[in-house]
Design a protein that fits this description.
The complex is a heterodimer. By secondary structure, chain A is of the alpha+beta class. Chain A has helices at residues 32-43, 50-58, 116-121, 123-133, 148-157, 159-164, 192-198, 223-229, 245-265, 283-317, 368-371, 394-399, 414-420, 423-432, 442-447, 456-466; strands at 7-10, 13-16, 26-29, 67-74, 81-88, 93-95, 105-115, 211-220, 235-242, 277-279, 325-331, 333-341, 344-353, 355-357, 376-379, 387-392, 403-405, 436-439, 469-482. In chain A, the strands form 4 sheets. In chain A, strands 7, 8, 9, 11, 15, 16, 18 and 19 form an 8-stranded mixed β-sheet that branches. In chain A, strands 1-2-3-4-5-13-12 form a 7-stranded mixed β-sheet. Chain A is globular, with a radius of gyration of 21 Å. Chain B has one domain (3-138): 3-Layer(bab) Sandwich (Archease, Possible Chaperone, Chain: A, domain 1). Chain B contains 2 helices and 8 strands; from the N terminus they run ββαβαβββββ. In chain B, strand 7 and strand 8 form a beta hairpin. The chains are: A alpha+beta, B alpha+beta. The interface between A and B is large, with 50 and 40 residues.
Chain lengths: 483, 139
């Protein structure tokens, strides 16, 4: 297979031509910098490379239009990270590789009524207050304790469960993707082990690239959109990134094994063992989809409990501080959505692995307040650089099934990052730049060094220039609590 | 060398070496737990029993690792020593023991959480007269 011969459509759109067993071509949204990095991995003969993964996904039954990689693309397991694959409801499959272990890993952004200078004056006490109140790091447990009966309510209720139980507020729900609850979630399809693993993990952040960050609006690119989103220069927001915790991990584990048998049973040919899958319209496929929906709801609930904790932590330093929800979106999902295929509206199952929804103007899934301008796309950057809020576009609806990037995307392995950076030194450097970071592990901080990631400005530029999602504002960090 | 962590941009590859496949499985588990905790700090106070099976030896490795992750979470344990016996009937079966103690975020110098072991990069091989088995784990 010739993975190096990519066809340039525009400076920001590249096609991996259909060849061998590929049912559709691959499409990559990035500039030469992104493309060269991908080709380099192929040339070096790396065991796992994203171009190969894009091609592998393009070989899966029922895939529609193309196998997509966005500008934050890097190698994942099975699917590339930053990947999108949409499948037909009759001939298509649902695959573990396109969703992963951290189901509905999401970013939530909360607004505040504060300005940058208000935070600067109290940065350290706010950092410590958030660090204390948000359970984070490997093995941390939350204050909420659940039993088998209650966990089922979490899995069906999502963020609604949280609000009913005193975490978060009713008015938050409108500003969460799917209003914080997907309906196909049947806890019967989730194992006891998965539920048990989650008993103490609701309201915990996790580790790795999960964080809570206090940010300010540093630059506005689109005045009209920013106004509709209610964002002004120097406004302070709080963003956090985490997923469905152990419940999602165990759903992944359970179905990895089950789908391996199912793939064999139906004689589905896959190019990478991690792409184990089930026909969507089979009993097994629908069970997995329902389990994924349980994971999605669990992440929604988790985010709502964390929202509650962050509000509490903020109040300790800013007693009058209100933190209304701006928006919450997930990556690592499979969603039933209507899209246009050859001019006709069609129901599809859209996998987004390390990529998010980015619906264009007018879609009814978008909160009324934002509908005119398109869905907010929350792009988490690294702790030392910046994050972005983009908005979905018509072009995105036509090309990427309304999907955009989820972050900067790693450029360096964790092992190499640890060799190159030291946690304590990094913390000092960041503090000199006015960014206050506290983490649960120094090694973890080194692994998350800004230099270990792709240049987020370039990654976002590719989205904006290709027209997939438009830049609205840039956010810069002041405080970061690392998981 | 008992085990090795392999470069992967988003996640981490783990590889266990051994004179036998059983030893490679044991060291593979060590590799995975070394991502999460400092193995040296964990005392062997309690044993956990693991039983699992799979249609082939590679899948059995992923099963073994994932069973350990489940046990670690549900019983809130840190594991650092492992013993494995593998049998083959019509499928592969594993009986294993993991030793460690109650998880302690400070004492065990908790690092990065492993979410799951995957079929990606999964293979058995030979290097310098030793057998190895490897896969990518999601972190």
């Amino acid at each position: 297979m010739d993975l190096l011969n990519l066809k340039r459509i525009t400076d920001y759109e590249w096609e991996l031509p259909k060849q061998e067993d590929m049912i559709v071509p691959g499409m990559i949204y990035g500039n030469t910098k992104i493309i060269d990095h991908l080709k380099e991995d192929v040339r070096l003969g790396k065991d796992w490379n994203a171009l190969k993964q894009i091609a592998n996904v393009a070989c899966m039954p029922g895939i529609q239009k193309c196998s997509i990689a966005l500008s934050d693309v890097h190698p994942g397991y099975g699917f590339p990270i930053g990947g999108v694959g949409a499948f037909d409801t009759e001939e298509g499959v649902i695959t573990m590789g396109g969703i992963g272990f951290d189901i509905n890993c999401s970013v939530t952004t909360l607004k505040t009524s504060l300005k940058e200078e208000d935070i600067r004056k109290n940065a350290k006490s706010l950092l410590n207050s958030l660090f204390k109140i948000v359970p984070a790091g490997l093995g941390s447990t939350g204050k909420v304790r659940l039993n088998f009966h209650q966990i089922d309510e979490v899995l069906t209720g999502g963020a609604e469960w949280a609000v009913e139980n005193g975490y978060g507020e009713e008015k938050d729900l409108e500003f969460i993707e799917e209003n914080g609850k997907v309906k196909e979630a049947d806890p019967e399809n989730v194992s006891e082990k998965a539920k048990q693993r989650q008993f103490k993990q609701i309201g915990t952040l996790g580790s790795g690239n999960h964080y809570v960050e206090v940010q300010y609006v540093a630059e506005i690119y689109d005045q009209e959109a920013a106004e509709i989103y209610g964002l002004k220069e120097k406004d302070v927001v709080v963003s956090f990134h985490c997923g469905s915790r152990a419940l999602g991990h165990q759903i992944g584990t359970d179905y990895l094994k089950k789908l391996a048998e199912v793939t064999k049973k139906y004689g589905i040919k896959i190019k990478d063992r991690e792409l184990v899958c089930a026909p969507i319209n089979s009993e097994e496929g629908q069970k997995y989809f329902s389990a994924v929906c349980c994971g999605i709801n669990c992440a929604f609930a988790n985010h709502e409990v964390l929202t509650h904790l962050i509000r509490k932590g903020f109040k300790e330093v800013f007693p009058d501080g209100e933190l209304p929800k701006f928006y919450s979106i997930g990556h690592n999902t499979c969603k039933k959505e209507y899209h246009k295929i050859n001019g006709k509206k069609k129901l599809l199952y859209v996998h987004r692995k390390g990529s998010t929804r980015a619906f264009g103007p007018g879609r009814e899934e978008i909160p009324k307040k934002y509908r005119k301008i398109g869905q907010p796309v929350l792009v988490g950057g690294t702790m030392g650089t910046c994050s972005f809020i983009l908005c979905g576009t018509e072009k995105g609806m036509d090309t990427t099934f309304g999907s955009a990037i989820h972050g900067a995307g790693r450029a360096m392995s964790r092992k190499r990052a640890k060799r190159q950076y030291r946690g304590d030194k990094l913390l000092k450097e960041l503090e000199n730049k006015g960014i206050y970071v506290r983490g649960h592990s120094m090694a973890g901080i080194a692994e998350e060094a800004p230099g270990a990631y792709k240049d987020i400005v370039n990654v976002v530029e590719c989205m904006d220039k290709s027209g997939i999602a438009k830049k609205v504002v840039m956010l810069k960090p002041i405080i970061n609590v690392k998981g | 060398m008992d085990y090795e962590l392999l470069e992967h941009e988003a996640d981490i590859g783990i590889r266990g070496y051994g004179n036998t496949i059983e030893e490679a499985f044991e060291n593979g588990a060590k590799a995975m737990f070394s991502i999460m905790i400092d193995l040296e700090t964990v005392e062997s106070e309690k044993n956990g029993e693991i039983k699992c099976e799979a249609p082939d030896i590679e899948a059995l490795f992923v099963e073994w690792l994932n069973e350990l992750l489940t046990k670690k979470d549900i019983e809130e344990m840190s594991f650092s020593r492992f013993k494995v016996k593998i049998y083959k009937d019509d499928i592969y079966k594993l009986e294993g023991t993991a030793s460690g103690e109650k998880f302690d975020q400070k004492k065990h110098k908790a690092k990065l959480e492993v979410k799951g072991a995957t079929y990606s990069g999964l293979k058995i091989g030979k290097k310098d007269e030793k057998i190895f088995i490897q896969c990518i784990v999601d972190v």
